[in-house]
Design brief:
The chain is mainly alpha-helical. It is built from four helices and no strands.
Length: 119
């Protein structure tokens, strides 16, 4: 049952990352759209559970949308142009990737049966 819950969290987190990133890319050239996109991105990563199947899939999906948006369009332009707003969106994607992994709990390095006191 834990596997089903983990897969559900993974799919839902990735879908949320895609949705938030698409909305951020679509509105980032408007000042209020940029602020809303940054706030929604940060709020989502903070609201997600601290688990490997929740935060990293969100950030990876967000970064994947940004990677696709940074590709050159057929007419020669870019969906995320070079400028302050474009660099802010790119910086948010990198920050989300770092924070989503850095805020995860560390795995327990000590075995549960061993004692730290000498006998």
């Amino acid at each position: 049952m834990k596997v089903v819950a983990a897969v559900g969290r993974l799919v839902a987190s990735a879908a949320l990352g895609l949705a938030v990133a698409v909305a951020t890319v679509a509105l980032h050239q408007l000042w209020w759209g940029l602020l809303l996109g940054v706030a929604a991105s940060a709020a989502a990563v903070v609201a997600l559970p601290v688990h490997w199947s929740a935060r990293p899939p969100y950030a990876v999906a967000y970064a994947a949308v940004l990677a696709a948006a940074l590709q050159e369009r057929p007419d020669g332009g870019f969906l995320v142009p070079a400028g302050v707003a474009g660099y802010v969106v790119l910086g948010v994607a990198v920050l989300l990737l770092v924070l989503s992994v850095a805020t995860l709990p560390r795995p327990d390095r000590t075995p549960a049966a061993s004692s730290t006191e000498p006998s």
